[in-house]
Amino acid sequence: MKKIIMDCDPGHDDALAMMLALASPEIDLLAVTSSAGNQTPEKTLNNAMRLLTLMHHQEIPVAGGNRTPLMQPLETAGNVHGKSGLDGADLPDPDFAVQDMTAIELIAKTLRESDDPVTLVVTGPMTNIALFLRVYPELKGKIDRIVFMGGAMGLGNWTPSVEFNIYVDPEAAKIVLNAGIPLTMAPLNVTHKAQILKPEIAAIGEINNPVANAFQGLLNFFEVYHENPKWGFKGAPLHDPCTIAWLLHPEMFESELMNVDVETQGELVRGETVCDYYELTGKPKNTDVLLDIDRPAFIQLIMDSLKTFK
After folding, report:
1. Which of 22-26, 77-81, 89-93 has the lowest mean pLDDT?
2. DSSP 3-state assignment of 298?
3. What is the pLDDT of residues 47-87, one digit of tens each?
4. I need a labelling partner for 44 at 20 to 30 A (CA). Which of 55, 96, 129, 273 fits?
5. Which CATH number belongs to the domain containing residue 143 in this structure?
6. Per-residue pLDDT tens for 111-167?
7. Strand, helix or coil at 32?
8. Which residues form the catalytic set?
9. What 8-state DSSP symbol labels residue 4?
10. 3-class secondary structure for 176-216?
11. Total number of domains constituting the chain
């Protein structure tokens, strides 16, 4: 069983990633920490609590993290995720308390208490993880791997070559990518292929349990933003669930091991993940970069997972 901590900024696709983790008997979700990104810190923390309440996992400790990026003001994606950050479904109010500690304190406590190495799954900006590595460097060895959704090799979704999660806090991402911890990256190259189509969203409604019904509403809302023809999508790209899907079924993906670093200075490319695909720099290969996905198997995993809820 894989022990994980989720650091997220829910967010429709973060919600699906959390659902996949909770549905799988192969994953032990030890803690959830929230970051500011898709929406403001208050909203993302509340959304994480609402999701765990919806899925009846109030036993999982939750803590709120960064309120701003390390070096710049916070920019959010309310145009994608709506006013609440999870528009489209009527989610329950949290019926349990947030932990009386910060995100990095909860990560430290969880790592100390675990006999096994823990995987960090990061589906928002990397501010919490960068702060954790700076404040608790002695616990770095307890991290098995960091699996993150972020970055792009080529085309971005926030500026021409920059993906949103890295754009929000490039300095934090640079710290994490250069920390010497094994990394798996789900960039836009793979997440844009991980699309759910309108008939598949409709099929989720036929599962007919409260969790599936909520996710059908969330996905119907999320899909509308992606109908703009400029993207060339046939449905909605499910970015963040690729992290959990890879942990469960790495055979579902094609990947390449390469050096990845983050540009923090460039006038046009600040936040770009620079992926050394052709081994031009001689730098060590630090990141397993996911580049392709078996889309039908991925959608089937989501369907099967939703069916496990009562």
Report:
1. 77-81
2. helix
3. 999 999 999 999 999 999 999 999 999 999 888 899 999 99
4. 273
5. 3.90.245.10
6. 999 999 999 999 999 999 999 999 999 999 999 999 999 999 999 999 999 999 999
7. strand
8. 239
9. E
10. HHCCCCCEEEECHHHHCCCEECHHHHHHHHHHCCHHHHHHH
11. 1
Residue 174, H or E segment: helix 170-177
SS3 content of the chain, % helix, strand, coil (to 5): 40, 20, 40
Residue recorded with tokens 């803590």 = 63
Q: What single DSSP character describes residue 97?
A: P
Residue 176: Cβ within 10 Å count: 24
62-64/118-122 β-pairing: unpaired
Where in the sequence is the domain holding 248, given as residue range(s)?
A: 2-306
Q: Which amino acid is at 231?
A: W
Containing H/E element for 8?
strand 2-8
Rounded CA-CA distance 101/110 in Å is: 12
Q: Provide the CB-side half-sphere exposure for 23 (13 A, CA).
A: 24
Residue 234 main-chain phi, psi, to 5 deg: -100, -15
> Who contacts 161 (Cβ-Cβ below 8 Å, separation ≥6)?
152, 154, 155, 268, 269, 272
Query: Per the confidence metrics, is the pTM higher than 0.85?
Result: yes
| 268, 162 Cβ separation under 8 angstroms | no
